[in-house]
Amino acid sequence: MAESWDPKTRDTVKKIPFLTETAGPRDKQKWQDRLKQELHALITYIKMNKESDMDWFTIQPNSDGTNWKGKCWYVHELIKYEFDFQFDIPATYPDTAPEIEIPELDGKTAKMYRGGKICLTIHFKPLWSKNSPHFGVAHALCLGLAPWLAAEVPFMVESGVIKPKV
After folding, report:
1. Measured between alpha carbons, how far is 101 from 112 in angstroms, rounded to an integer?
2. In CA terms, which of 15, 95, 120, 122 is 20 to 30 Å from 5?
């Protein structure tokens, strides 16, 4: 699968630290260790994005790291489209990837499930399964949400489904 990525994506993924702790939220103490690794990987990814002027999201976990919320944006034809996104960490994490939701886009594209969950089934979930437990939140954003936005936002704009916010 990595062979089909463009060189920039491949280089980015190589720079995001892999996680080593296998705990999920049900394992309280080890989950804290995993959460530290998650935050380290996210900080690394965010710094890389900012340094290359490719900043495209903000994110914040709740106090126990089981619910994450943020804003993501995509620029299409020099117009910025910004969306709130969220996800819960599944009880079976890291074996199961988080399901990223963009509630305001619910029902606006076929590449979305009920509740505004973006479709990651065909491309991202097999990749996650193959790389679990080494992938984390930063990888889900880089290899899940980012390509989804790149594919779907232009389509929704050009079909008139979404309009720029004034």
Report:
1. 9
2. 95
Chain position carrying tokens 């979930």 = 125
Q: What is the pTM of this model?
A: 0.93
pLDDT one-digit tens code per residue, 76-99: 999 999 999 999 999 999 999 999
For residues 28 and 50, what is the distance between their CA atoms, to the nearest angstrom? 32
Q: How far is CA 8 from the centre of its chain?
A: 17
71 closest CA partner among 79, 81, 63: 81
pLDDT in tens, 32-70: 999 999 999 999 999 999 999 999 999 999 999 999 999
Strands 112-113 and 117-118: antiparallel
Under 8 Å between Cβ of 34 and 26: no
Q: Is 119 a catalytic residue?
A: yes
**Residue from 19, 35, 119, 149 carrying the catalytic annotation:** 119
